[in-house]
Write a structure and sequence with these properties.
about 400 residues, alpha/beta, 6-stranded mixed beta sheet, 5-stranded parallel beta sheet, 15 strands, about 15% strand, globular
């Protein structure tokens, strides 16, 4: 590493001590001129974000607030009613999980629920799937399954996989309106599967939906186990830390308080109105530079951890649905966004990384390294080296030649 590159690394490395998170954008080729040019835009973005978090209308067409950040810090909610709704829903989620785990809420034909069947689409499926894959403990008291499409054979495979355990399966139907075709069709198919086995679907079902929605009315009329609110001011792609994701996470004994606390810490970091000490702003700078402010290059995400397999899929919706726009807020044509794809390392070093290294340079890379190998001790797979050492080495070797990349590391 040259002295200049080492200095640039020190200048642009971000570290969050509370979260143990490093972010390195030093290999992105922006210069001081671009940073100066974007300074007024960052200043405006900081002010706009503060206004949004204060309850400003984000989308004039829908006349809605955007408040997913209030979910992890209810004190920021603009009204007492909103704050109470958040805290009451969280208490409801925890109480329901406790009752399921204790057997106080149980299937008619068994002492405990053994499985969860989550039915949703988009963020209502991707968020819970990603978190379940990444964080479910090995000794979780329930096993989770997902229906996230209206594919008949896909639905059949899930039902067949459950087999006789359908009788001890808790089904969560997630749909803000209740009218979205994919979750509605999944619900109808699953209701039929329960009925075909002589089971009462309502005694196995709960809903996450908007107050007064079609699904809410149905669940109340059929006396489902419970209904959790899905707030109007939480978009699907940012709903994971609402009841949408917290219900299944709590049932799987994932630490939802820890999730919320970590998200709050990161939210606090992204509110700092200073480019070099705000990780979201640093990523925005890197992405703007890589795509010339118009998404001219794709973003490839390479997490070096099996548990982050679904991260790129989750980011596809989060980034592409958020940024993919034909018009700006003033109605001017922009046709911009950032395409996201990826899988995991080091698997991809034996797959499409070949094209990334030697093919068309129409992308930039984000490498993600998790610094903690496993919960226990690691054996040496060869003298002086563990499997985790190899994984870290593969990550750093793949990243070393790259001139357009960002890297994040966390414990």
């Amino acid at each position: 590493m040259t002295a200049a590159l080492w200095q640039r690394y020190q200048d642009w490395l971000y570290y969050h001590a509370g979260l143990g998170l490093y972010l390195d954008i030093s290999r992105m080729g922006f210069d001081d001129g671009l940073v100066a040019q974007l300074a007024p835009k960052f200043e405006r973005a900081f002010k706009d974000m503060a206004a949004l978090e204060g309850g400003a209308i984000a989308n004039p067409d829908e006349d809605r607030m955007v408040g997913h950040y209030w979910l992890r810090n209810p004190d920021l909610a603009p009204t007492a009613a909103l704050k109470n709704s958040i805290t009451e829903t969280l208490a409801q989620v925890k109480d329901f999980a406790r009752q399921v785990h204790s057997g106080a809420v149980r299937p008619p034909s068994g002492s405990r629920f053994t499985d969860i069947l989550s039915i949703g689409i988009g963020g209502s499926a991707l968020g819970p799937q990603f978190v379940a894959e990444a964080l479910t403990p090995a000794d979780a008291p329930l096993t989770i399954h997902f229906i996230d499409n209206t594919d008949p054979s896909g639905i059949d495979r899930v039902i067949e996989r459950l087999g006789d355990r359908l009788a001890t399966t808790l089904t969560i139907v997630i749909s803000k309106s209740g009218g979205t075709p994919e979750p509605r069709n999944g619900m109808v198919e699953v209701k039929q599967a329960y009925s075909a086995r002589g089971l009462n679907f309502a005694q196995h079902a709960c809903a996450v939906t908007g107050s007064g929605s079609q699904l809410d009315r149905l669940a109340q009329a059929e006396n489902w186990l419970t209904v959790f609110p899905m707030e109007d001011w939480v978009g699907g792609r940012t709903s994971e830390l609402s009841a949408v994701g917290l219900v299944s996470a709590a049932l799987l004994t994932i630490d939802i308080d820890g999730l919320l606390a970590g998200a709050k810490q990161m939210d606090d970091a992204t509110r700092i109105p200073d480019l070099k000490t705000n990780p979201a702003a640093l990523l925005a700078l890197a992405w703007h530079h890589a795509g010339n402010g118009k998404g001219e290059k794709d973003m490839v995400v390479l997490p070096y951890k099996d548990s982050l397999l679904l991260f790129s899929r989750y980011l596809q919706q989060l980034v592409m649905e958020s940024l993919g726009k034909a018009l700006d807020l003033d109605g001017n044509p922009v046709y911009q966004g950032i395409a996201v794809y990826g899988n995991k390392g080091s698997t991809d070093q034996h797959a499409y990384v070949q094209q990334l290294r030697e093919g068309v340079p129409n992308f930039f890379l984000t490498f993600i390294e998790v610094l903690k190998d496993r919960a226990g001790e690691s054996i040496e797979v060869e003298a002086g080296a563990t499997s985790g050492d190899f994984l870290s080495g593969f990550c750093r070797a793949a990243a070393a030649p790259c001139s357009t990349m960002a890297a994040t590391r966390s414990p």
